[in-house]
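Example record

One chain of 156 residues, shown exactly as stored in the release files.
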Amino acid sequence: MSLVLADLLKEKQVDLDLRGRTMETALQELVALLAADEQVRESENFLEQVLARERSNPTVLEHAIAFPHARTELVDKIVLGIGRSHSGIPFGPAGERARLIFLLGVPQRLVSDYLVSVGALARLLKDPEVRQRLFAANSPKEFLDVLRAPDETRFD
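Predicted structure tokens for this chain:
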């Protein structure tokens, strides 16, 4: 099976103005987006799994990007919730600020697809022009259009 980035991108699962000021509250907002779109079961349990994973192994990367995730049976397919914070949200023990948060839920059986997906997103987000356009986007559609490659690049 090959995964297309566009398959993970849904406007209803993007919040361009996260209100949370802590990692916990920001992730709670993103989990709520996924739950409202019926992408995750038992949202409180899912949130706890994500928080436990993030506390044990923080996922904040350079360029103020974080990829919190949970490998769980509470999702049937890989799901992605995206949040943006203009001021940044402290992540990890050093309190590094994440401005773009890509929350993933991954079924246990699709761990390799998850790794490929995150790697492709990370490579895309290394581009300063892409990040600048994501920070400037005025709508979820505009934000997702930046992430969609013209050829809908496949991750095999």
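Notes: Residues 150-156 have pLDDT under 50 and may be disordered.
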